[in-house]
Write a structure and sequence with these properties.
mainly alpha; 2 helices; elongated
Length: 29
């Protein structure tokens, strides 16, 4: 369960990154 929570947090931050700086995310991938 803890691992899932950590992954959820990462996904949350990732989505915020996409909304905040889409260009950086595209280059990052």
């Amino acid at each position: 369960v803890e691992a899932l929570v950590q992954e959820d947090s990462r996904l949350d931050q990732y989505q915020k990154l996409i909304k905040g700086e889409p260009k950086i995310v595209w280059e990052w991938q």
